[in-house]
Amino acid sequence: MKIVIVGNGAAAIKALEAMATHKVMSSADQGRITIISRERTAPYSPMFLVDYLTRELGEEDILLGEKHGLSPHRLLGEKVIRVEDSENKVVLENGVKPCLYKHLTYF
Ligand SMILES: Cc1cc2nc3c(=O)[nH]c(=O)nc-3n(C[C@H](O)[C@H](O)[C@H](O)COP(=O)(O)OP(=O)(O)OC[C@H]3O[C@@H](n4cnc5c(N)ncnc54)[C@H](O)[C@@H]3O)c2cc1C
To answer: Which of 13, 105, 107 to mutate to test the pocket of ligand 1 (most atoms within 8 A of CB)?
Structure first.
């Protein structure tokens, strides 16, 4: 089973937590989760961006904690431009190799 999640924000982290809580993956499959995000950052909360930009908060204050215990492969800085459902394929910008999925979630 290969799961692709488009997005690396709060919704994606919640999805990973739900997968871990409900044990939807076998231990062998846990390395088969791929997260794609056009941003290059670790998961963060945009709602604190202003405080970060005005230096009232540091980087560590706006990063989202991850407690799911899964180790998804992260493709950061890659923009999804199209999903080809009939071929279970996520197409990335700049001719990067398409990402194949069995299950796809996008936020
Ligand atoms: C300035 C600001 C202040 C806010 N204040 C509040 C508040 O006070 N209270 C509140 O409840 N909410 C607030 N929000 C909203 C809150 O931040 C969002 O609801 C929350 O971040 C949504 O989480 P998400 O994971 O769905 O999306 P996001 O955090 O937006 O994450 C989207 C992810 O998808 C990726 N992505 C998107 N398109 C593509 C693509 N084509 N290809 C690859 N990756 C892609 C992005 O890189 C990112 O990783 C605020 C938002 C902003 C911007």
So the answer is: 107
